[in-house]
Amino acid sequence: MKKNSQTIDRQVIHKIMDRAIEINQSCKESCRDFRIMTSPMRADTLILRWRTIDISNEDNPIQYYHYECFKMDGTPEFCSVYYTDQDQANDFITSLQMLYHQKFAIDHTL
């Protein structure tokens, strides 16, 4: 993952992290590692990525990455990111550039 020199407005962070709180509250697994990111493969789109950990089998916990898209002003686009082609998926993952990171979805306005 590349570092991004682009900045993001605080109000946009609040809008997207409000959605992260909603996601966390409805999450059956452990949701964490919320990141606001960009990718050249998704122009003019902010991407919220988070990780869930399924610990139903303690000997083999499984991690999943989830993605949601937002307009540049933080408005949800009501879409997710999904690739059936492994090469495209790998290209997308390696193109991600992080703008903001918060380990847990808690009240970010404090």
TrEMBL record:
Superkingdom, taxonomy of origin: Bacteria
Descriptive protein name: Uncharacterized protein
Taxonomic classification: Bacteria, Pseudomonadati, Bacteroidota, Flavobacteriia, Flavobacteriales
